[in-house]
Automatic annotation (TrEMBL):
Entry annotated with the keyword Iron-sulfur: no
Record organism: Blastococcus deserti
Name listed for the protein in its UniProt record: Xylose transport system permease protein XylH
Subcellular location: Cell membrane
Function: Part of the binding-protein-dependent transport system for D-xylose. Probably responsible for the translocation of the substrate across the membrane.
InterPro entries noted in UniProt: ABC_transp_permease
Pfam families in the cross-refs: BPD_transp_2
Topological type in the membrane: Multi-pass membrane protein
Transmembrane segments: 40-61, 67-88, 95-113, 119-136, 141-159, 198-220, 232-251, 257-276, 306-325, 345-375
Region described as Disordered: 1-20
Main subcellular localisation: membrane
The entry's keywords: Cell inner membrane, Cell membrane, Membrane, Sugar transport, Transmembrane, Transmembrane helix, Transport
Amino acid sequence: MTRTAPPEADPTPKEPAPAVALHTGTSDLRTLITRNLRTSGIYVAFVAIVALFAVLTDGVSLSPGNITNIVLQYSYILVLAIGMVLVIIAGHIDLSVGSVVALTGAISAVLVIKNGNPWWVGVLAALAVGLAVGAWQGFWVAYVGIPAFIVTLAGMLLFRGLTLQVLDNISLSPFPQEYGRVASGFLNGLIGGQGYDAFTLLIGAFAVAGYAVSGFRTRLARIKYSQPVESFPLFVARVVLVGAVVMYFAWQLAHARGLPIVLIILAVLILAYSLISKRTVFGRQIYAIGGNLAAAQLSGVKVKVVNFWIFVNMGFLSAVAGIIYSSRSNGAQPAAGNMFELDAIAAAFIGGAAVTGGVGTVVGAMVGGLIMAVMSNGMQLMGVDQSVQSVVKGLVLLLAVAFDVYNKRRAGASR
């Protein structure tokens, strides 16, 4: 057998190409930053707002007691924002959630306070009413074809009127102690700790570990499909930064009253709906419908069915928010839930949802809701007049939507 001689090495020296590699890396990084500008900007804005109010309130806004109060006072808005962002991603809107919060809380109060049923009967009844409301509105939107804006506007009036009838125009209170623990109870002292609650710190550490593992798996999946990712040092820096924030938050809670039960409920909902929106067929269909309805129909998506269940889900989460709110206020009032729909919509848009649908995340909506919560809480601590608070919130919402429009125009011009 003849052997072929190996090719001779080229004596011409090769010029290193670090500039090309650097240019490519810089270009990829610039593309990555541009692509995630809106999401990254939300996180930066959140940190900046927290730091600003920490300075303006001389650190009171970051005290253990105040952080606990923020969790307790705005948890129901965050629950509503989870459902609202899915509605907006699909290209709809829901103006009735505040009235549904009031109605479900009223049903629960009548059964528990007025009729003397166990507290859990009120919870189950509120959830059943929320599901029925969602099915009612989903039917008109999905199968009759009436725009969601009109259906939920009618629902806002309808369910507010039903609330007044159920309560007979009077407030009902107080709930039993067990019902009140849903929104005002704490888990502490389970594994000890001197001067702090070790269980809260342990839960915080588990949350950071879960975030790091999830982020690393997502990074590997993007690399596998040749999608751009941030450099590994940047990834590590992001995980460390998020971990530091979470552990500081857990440390403050541990030095206050421990881990709020409502925070556990909220965390379970965030994890569940993040998985549903990102990892399930149903979640991908929601994005497909909002991104391009005609293409979704042609690709076999059962648009009517998906739209129906989107509103059933919104009714369910409105009921959860109604239970939390009535538990927090220790009663039911005819005016409960007033303007909650606007806070939930603002949280979704500030958190990155697009006006035209097809864009948004559950985590982004949570950050948007926390921005609103921190601003409201900080301005209250500073004694800012309520009218000024409304002006500031309106401007923040307007700027968030304007930023979305600007990004879309820039993306269209670059094509």
